[in-house]
Amino acid sequence: MSPATPAPESGGAALELLVHGVGGATPQDMLDDPRTVRITGDRTAAMHRRAEDVDAEDHPERYAARPVPEAYVWSNLTSGDGARALWLLLLPFMVANLAHWMRPPAPGRPGLVRTYGVLVRLVALTLTVLLTAAACEVALDLTAWQCAASAACTDAYSWLGFLSEARGGWWSAPGRRLAVAALVPTLLVGLLWYLSNRTWSAYEAQRPPTGYDDPVAEPPAATGFAPVPEESADTESADRGDDGPGPVELRPALGRPGFWYGRRLVARLRAAHTAAGFLTVAAALATATARHDVTTPGAGAFLGRALQAAVAALAVLVLWVVCRRGRSERRLDLRVERALVSWLPGVSLAVLALTALYAGWSRPGWTSDGALPGNVAFGGLTLIQGGLVVALGVVAVLLRRRPRRDTRTALRGLGGPAVAMLACALAGVMSGGVAQRVADWLDGPATPGMGDGGPRISPPVLLSWQASVIPVLLLLLLAPAALLAARTVLAGRRLRSQVEADYDAADERDPVRTGRIAAGRARASLTDSAPVLVGVISGATLLLGAGSVAGAWASGNVPGRAFDGAHPAIASLATVTQAIGSWMIGFGFLLFVTWGRRAYRDASARRTIGILWDVGTFWPRAAHPFAPPCYAERAVPDLTWRMSSWTRSTGGRLVISGHSQGSVLAAAAVWQLPPATRGRVALLTYGSPLERLYGRWFPAYFGPEALRALNRTVHCWSNLYRATDPIGGPVRVPADGDRPAVDAAALLDPVAYGRTRAHPLPEPILGHSDYQADPAFAHRRGALLDRLPPAVPHPRTPNATADQGSSGRSSG
Fold it and tell me: How much is the pTM?
């Protein structure tokens, strides 16, 4: 790197704040110096300087010709702890949360925006119910109901002997077996609640700066934004729930005071999802027991109906809590509905405990027969999820109906519904994989769901049909994958002439060198084809899921006879594909677990998984409270506080320099700055996915209007990119009055085509990394500093030193 960039001597104090991208970086690498010092922050996220620059503000004469480099290291927010590799199991929740933020921009349509948010939250709620239902299927149905009733199964697994119906022990009664097994899904729900509460306290409970918030909307002259009253309706912050309609907002969504502090909604959703999990377990217990009690006279049938009614009433209350309100962003909302947060899960747990006591009553003559009614539960959940996704698609289409449409928006505004469908598919594969593998394990040599003589242990028929469509889905993906591969090869050939023209290499043509550069550019363009694959997968999953439900119902939902109602040829083919799909589901789930365990021990694998969370957990938990925590709710306030405090205490100029995902954090932090600070800040982005990924997939927050507004509100902005970069790209913000276009010309990669005096050895193709190695980087950074206004003299006060982060210094 080249941290020292010339600056005008009259410019005064200047700070370059570096923010790394995905995968993390060390302060030594970012500052190009082995001796670094942490000047503020903790082991999770901190600001670092070179040891020689710690007291830079006390000696401004030393830095008259260069800015002070400072690095913000946030990699431990996502990939620092090996235990976080287990967050892979929360992947469906994270994907559902992304769907919330993918809606099209819809100025002036608050009703549709609210409906979109409600539908996504309902999809997220079904994922919690599905996960809990899968745990109930494994623990209650397969283990405590079917296996414990089979002497052969309990003899093979001695640890189940105390539940064996053949041995006639106290715990062998069906109701008591179910009550004991209910501890497994109950503990799972409790674990999810604990992780959500703990991660909120550890990562997201960082309040944004409050000293600069103005309760009244900022005037356009101060912010650089044009008055857009409809922006107040372009987010769920317009919910009338408890806040009323509120004043007109002139800020973009990411600049609102409460955007990066969603404590109230997360606590509310956490209570609702925890209660939903407990109620799912209670429903499974009550349904199984009441099914027996309705056949025998006595008070059992009345108690069973009463408990089922209590579960249904609480379920309606959970739905009301989830639908009642969305995010509140107009102000920093510090309130928590403690009564709701505490009593809703508590009452649900109490109903579960009463249901367990009810199931544990002595019922002479009650024996396990067949399977529990899991087919109806899983079939109903699948239909509800499909209906919600279709409704979400309809709302997205209505939201996109406006005069000006951005043709680069992913899937023409249907990215949110498509990703929500992927979340449901991932949850189905993971839950179905567990059930299939446990059934196969308990069943010995038989294959779950097959009709060869009737297996002892049978999962729900729907899972067998879902397993049978997985190979079909993979075959459907082969066509677009092959098409993209062929197109990439052809694009690489077409780009050869362009590469030679860019380097003016007519006199030194090297077919191998040209081919490698052209192939790198062609492979980088594959990122732009991601919406096609997502659309194909989501559409095929929706249709095949509907087909699996129809097939399960046509077979009569008889365990062990999944394909009896089908034509013999279809049944034979379905049997083969089901066996393949069953093993593929199990293999996929084991791959998840193995990958997580490897990442716990291997730092490089842990960093790879961290990259997934760097991209997927940027957004706050607005739909699913059990999703992995949002690191930006810590990182954005960190950057905002640092930029505000440094400029206020020194009056100096500041360039925030963000690479890759760091550029997204930098842009979000600039949006949060007060107007006076924005006027002293320049933004430098490189390898940035701001438009290529975020603008296309999250158009309501990073669309063309939002990026143009960002260019107007910050003093100056420059963006660097390469044609060989698969992640970063141009931000496509044109010139605006006296403001030049944000994008520079695409940087050549490699810097030199062949051997030169300046580059005697062949230069590597860098792609997404090492932008600072290009001479254009230092030139652009120096130009931004030149455009910033001179430093404003500020009196030195004791508090200024603290603001500059000189306290809490420790060796790096």
Answer: 0.88
